Amino acid sequence: MSILLYCVTEKSELPRLGKGVAGLPVLSVEHGEIAGLFSPGTCAEDWKGSPLKESARQFHQVLHRIFESRAIIPFCFPTLMHETPELARHLEANLLEYVAQLEKFRTSVQMDITITQADSARATRQASGAEYLRERQKQSEELDRVASQLCTHADSATRDWRTRPAQHGLKVFALLDRDSVEVFNSSLQQFRVPPGLGIRITGPWPVTAFLELRQVG
Amino acid sequence: MSAPGTIVFADTNEGDQLALLDILDHVLNQGVILRGNLVISLAGVDLVYVGLDVILTSIETAMRHINATSRVTEKTS
After folding, report:
1. Closest-approach residue (CA) in chain B for A98
2. Residues A7, A94: one domain?
3. Residue A54: its pLDDT value, please?
4. What number is the ipTM of this complex?
């Protein structure tokens, strides 16, 4: 038997935690100013009964419920520990890191922008290696240019940006205040998408792309 | 993937298939990863003992393998 970890958050005025993955209760263990949320009594059998994606969705629903009213630092799913004292020791060992990050991003959320190319396989159809590399570079420059235009377009609502290559395109992460989401979305609604590209915006998400945690163990 | 030439806004709480892909990307790939070792126990038998970061991407495959192994064992016994 293990415990399944959800996230770390500030311990003050925790909302109702309710049920988690596989209908298990969501509990908290506290240390200093922070709380670690988990479900007890989990083991592999809990995921065997339903597809992993359903468990992942339930995991997300727990995070979303807590994140609606406060900053959280989520654990990747599925992160397990043997027992509650192990989580308490982990919180104690990493208290300063968690407190600093929760404080830094207390009022922040993250929006994800995925820019995709309609014909991302174009490069692979080139006759030679050199042409393939030229095409890849051209595609990459096009994505970078659009990402930069998006950043400029929503600049007034955002505090920071990060980019990461993604399958068929580029992923852009925007850091903004919780109350700037509407301004952010409406500013990008005016954005003219270049031909051949698709842009998908999701969020608000907990801040993960901007976390600066040292090796947490 | 979003349609070419369009900009799509998706609520993270919606239940469609695309939102599910976004959710999976987040819960599996983003967040704190703890370094350590882990034992997955099924029916009281310890099955897997590997680095936790490896488990994060292989648990479903492991489950399929376990199920397949169980079926083979049942057939041969």
Report:
1. B32
2. yes
3. 84
4. 0.76
